[in-house]
Amino acid sequence: MRHDIDLTNAVLSAQPVRQYDQDVIMSWIRQAHEEQLALCVELEEIADSLPAINKQKCIYAAKALCPLIRSLHHYEESVLFPHIARQHAHSGPMSATLSRLKFEHLEDEGYAEELTEALLRLGSGEPVNDEAVGYMLRGFFEGVRRHIAFEKAYLLHDYLPFSPISE
Question: Is residue 166 within 8 Å of residue 54, measured between CB atoms?
Fold first, then answer.
């Protein structure tokens, strides 16, 4: 799994949005989407390999999952969403969309915590219900892919080229 985005510095340096150049924001979100999609590929490989999983891959994915998702959501909510909100200051639908995406972030983070626990159990060799874990994995990575596709198609269509969910 590739994790070369410097999320720590991006989050810690989240100054007021006006200090961010739009190109910097879009570059960051493009990289963030790539990271999320790479994680989805890893999770899909784990789901496809059940019950004969790679324990080390499960532990690595478990340790990466929550910090990655939380950092990405923090940046979106503290930098990207305010930037978009300012550009669409008089748009009720955009405000409602940003609120909806923030709520989805909360749900995704809770689901990521549950999935982390399941991945750690898999990685440690504890017995799990393979069918249930496979369902959890697929539900999570498919939801992340849909979320990214929605952001690209609806929020970022003027800045990023749209590509299908199956990236």
Answer: no
The encoded tokens of residue 32 equal: 């963030």
Q: Where are the beta strands (DSSP E) in 3-154?
A: none
Residue 159: predicted pLDDT: 59
CA distance 85 to 142: 27
- Mean pLDDT (the chain) is 82
How many angstroms separate the CA atoms of 103 and 106, rounded? 5
User: What local confidence, expressed as pLDDT, does residue 158 receive?
Assistant: 65
Residues sharing a CB contact under 8 Å with residue 37, sequence separation 6 or more, in sequence order: 144, 145, 148, 167
Q: How far is Cα 98 from Cα 108, in angstroms, rounded to an integer?
A: 15
- Work out the burial of residue 1: count CB atoms within 10 Å of its CB; fewer than 13 is exposed, 13-18 middle, 19 or more buried: middle
Is 151 within 8 Å of 101 (Cβ atoms)? yes
What is the distance between the terminal CA atoms of the chain, rounded to a whole angstrom? 15
CA distance 129 to 134: 9
